[in-house]
Amino acid sequence: MLEQRSLLSQFTRFTGATVASLMVFSLYSIVDGLFVAKGVGEFAMAAVNLAVPFTNILFSIAVVFAVGANTIIAIYLGRGEGERADSLLSQNLALLTVIGVAISLLVLTVPFARLLGANETTLDYTVHYLRGLAPFALCFIVSYNMEILVKTDGYPRIAIATVVTGCLANCALDYLAIFVLNWGVWGAAVAT
Fold first, then answer.
1. Which of 63, 149, 183, 188 has its Cβ near the most Cβ atoms within 10 Å?
2. H helix runs in the chain, sequence order
């Protein structure tokens, strides 16, 4: 019975951290939208909303690699093969680096805003927002990936603390970029 309660406690701790992380990650776009709507305008807010699929793609790539890497890393650690686990983590990060750089270059060179549904009214705002996000695609992917890896490594509180800290920093930087520096929708993307 004690073992079952311990298992339930661990399950609750890890799922709670996962749900909280997902909710906080969702706040990034919401916060950008609110600041942009208030400081730039409703068409700029539409551009932020049009870019949500782009950030969801980055998140999905990070999660897919994290789940796959976590599974194999856990097997290696269970066998006592720490060096192989470390090597796999390094390979995971190297592959994510290549993917992140490729996505950045693709979004910066291809008219990606049209693909996301931007029209004549929102095109400029969407392009500027994507140009602010795209150079940091690698950062998005690695941070999402590492949040999951840290949580799986047994530190869900550290993972959620970093996610919350990032969200609070995003709020402060959005305010600074939009209202103080007057960088508009591009500034909101860079702040994110």
1. 188
2. 2-39, 42-50, 52-78, 82-109, 112-115, 123-133, 137-152, 156-175, 184-191
CB-CB neighbours of 53 under 10 Å: 13
Which pLDDT tens digit goes with each residue over 6-33?
778 877 877 787 788 778 877 877 888 8
Q: Identify residue 180 by its one-letter amino acid code.
A: V
Neighbours of 54 (CB within 10 A): 22
The span from the CA of 112 to the CA of 75, in Å, is 39
Residues whose CB is less than 8 angstroms from the CB of residue 99 and which lie 6 or more positions away in sequence, other chains included: 61, 141
Query: Could you give the angle at the alpha carbon of 101 between the alpha carbons of 185 and 92, nearest 5°?
Result: 120
Residue 40 CA to residue 129 CA, distance in Å, equals 12
